[in-house]
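Archive entry. Fields below.
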Amino acid sequence: MSTTTRREFLGRGAATLAALSLPTQMHGEDVPAAAPLEQFEYGQVQLLEGPMLEQFRHNHALFLGLNNDSLLKPFRQLAGQSAPGEDMGGWYSPSPDFNPPKNMTGYIPGHSFGQYLSGLSRAYAVTRDPATQQKVHQLVAGFAPTATKDFYSDYCLPAYTFEKTMCGLSDAHQFAQDPSALAVLNKATDAVLPWLPEKALNRKEMAARPHKNVAYTWDESYTLPENFYLAYKRGAGNRYRALAQRFLEDDTYFNPLADGHNVLPGEHAYSHVNALCSAMQAYKVDGSRKHFEAARNGFRFVQEQSFATGGWGPNESFQKPGSNGLADSLTKTHSSFETPCGAYGHFKITRYLLTATGESSYGDSMETVLYNTILGARLLKPNGISFYYADYSNDAAKMDYEQAWPCCSGTFPQLTADYGISSYFRTPQGIAVNLYVPSRVTWKQGSASVSLTQETSYPRDNETALTIRTDRTERFTVTLRVPAWAGAGSRVRINGRNAELHPEPGSWLKIDRTWKNNDRVEFTIDMPLRLIPLDAQHNDVVALMHGPVALFALHPVTGTIPKPALLAARRASTTSVDWHVATDAGQITMRPFSAITTERYRLYQST
Ligand SMILES: [Zn+2]
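PREDICTED_STRUCTURE:
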C-alpha cells in the first residue's frame, strides 16, 4: 500500500493508463485512446437510502405514472393522426397562444418525449422493473407511426427535438432492450433530415436565414453529434457516424476552442456545454485529438466563469472573461443557473473527461454541482411544473418555472438515473470511487465476485465507510478521489487501524491490497472552511464553502461581513447542516442549498 499521486497512478499501469494524461501525443488522428477509467453498467451500481435515491425514485415513479396517450399526443396531432388523451400543456402541447418570447405556451410540442423515454430506459437498466420496460416498449410502438416528415413541417426547433427523440430511442434499444427502437430511429431520422440544415449552425447563422419568428433561430443543430455517435456505436448504422461528423460545429466553435480561443461569451450556456459532449464523442469514436482539445479547453473556460456552486451561465449565457458579467448578475437577474439541464450536461462532460483523462479534478467539479445545485432542486410535480433556475442573486429565493414541462423536466430524470454510473468507475487494476454517496457497486474482479458498499452521510459528516464483500480473496486496488480542497487531516483506516496512507489533495489515493470478505475502509475527509471569490475582479465578494458545500446566508443580511468572521463560522449543532456566523450586527445563519425551502438567501457576501 502506498499513497499515489496522479503522476504515479498514471505511470504504473501499462499502456491503458499511459494514455491517460496526454492522449494528443499518444495517438494518431483516427485511433481513439484507451480510456484510463471506464463506466460501469447501470445495473451494477445501486443507490442506497439518501437524498439521491429519493430524487431518482421520485422521477422514476412520476414518469412511470404519466399517461401514454398524453405523452404521444403532440406527435399524433402534428402528424395529422387521431390523438386521444389529455393535453400535457406548457411547452409540450401545441398551442395557438405561442408568441415568442412573450408567451412560451406551446413552444416545442413533444420536445422532451425522448428524454422521458431515455430516463425510463435508464431507470429500467438500474431497477429491472418489468413495468418500466413495458412502458418503454409501449411508447416506442406508439411513437413509430408518427415518425413522418409531417411532424416537422413548420416546426421551430427540429434539431432540438430530434436530438432528444434520438437519445430516447437509442436508450430504449440499449438499456430497455426494445426490439424495434433502432428501426423506429431510422424512420425518425428519415423524417427529420429534410428539415435539418446542411451543417451545424449557431444562433447568429440561424438569425441570418429567413425565419418565421425568433424561436426559429434557437435550434441547436450543434448538439446532434453526441447522440448520432452513440446511435452509431449501438448499431444503428454507418450513416449515423457520417451525420455526427456533418454536424460537428467546427468552424465557429470547436476549431477556435481547440486552438485555445475562448469563444464562449454570448453563447447559449447549456447547449454549448452539451455540445462539448459531442466533441468528446468525436474523440472517443473517431479518435479526433482536435475535438478532445476543444472539449477540454471549452470546459476549462466554463469553469473559469462558474459560480462557487459549480453552476454557470446567468440568463443562460456565457460571460466575457474580465467583464462585470457575473457581478452584474447578482443584482440584475434571478436566472443564475439552469439547474437540471446544466447539471445533466455538467455530469456528462465531467464523466467523459474524467474517463478519458483520469484527472480527479473533473470528479471534484461534478461533486460541487451535485451538492450545490441539483440536490437542492425542487421536486418535479405531476402536472409538469419544474425547477429550472437556481437564483444566486443577493436577494434570492427558490422558485419553479412558470411553464409546465420545460427542458429541465426532461434532463432531471435522465440525470437522476445517471447518479449511480457517475459514482464509481472501473480502472485497469480495480475500482475508483468518485462520489461519496450511499451506494453499492458490484463487479467481477479476476475470478472473484466483488461488491463495495458505501455508508455515509457525507458531506454533512466528513467520513465514509466502504465495505468489501468478495466470494474469494483477491488482490486489486480501490482508488479514492481526494478532493483538491481537502485539508491535511484527511486519513484512512482499514479494519479499524490507521493505514500508512497520506491522502494528497487533488489526486487519487490508491489502496492496493489483497482484499478479504468484509474488509472495511474508513475514509475521513478533512473539510476546512474556505472562501471562494466571485471572480478575479471581485476578491472582496466571496462564498463560504465547507468542503464541497456552499453555505448560503439566510436573510436578513446587511452590510459587509469580514472574511475572518466568515471563516470563524461554527456549526449550529453537531447534527445540524446550519452554520452560525457572528457579526457586529448579530448572528447570521448559513445553510446548504439542499436544505433551503422558502427562506430568502444570498450566496455571495461582501467582505
Ligand atoms: Zn432546462
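CURATOR_NOTE: Residues 529-606 form one domain.
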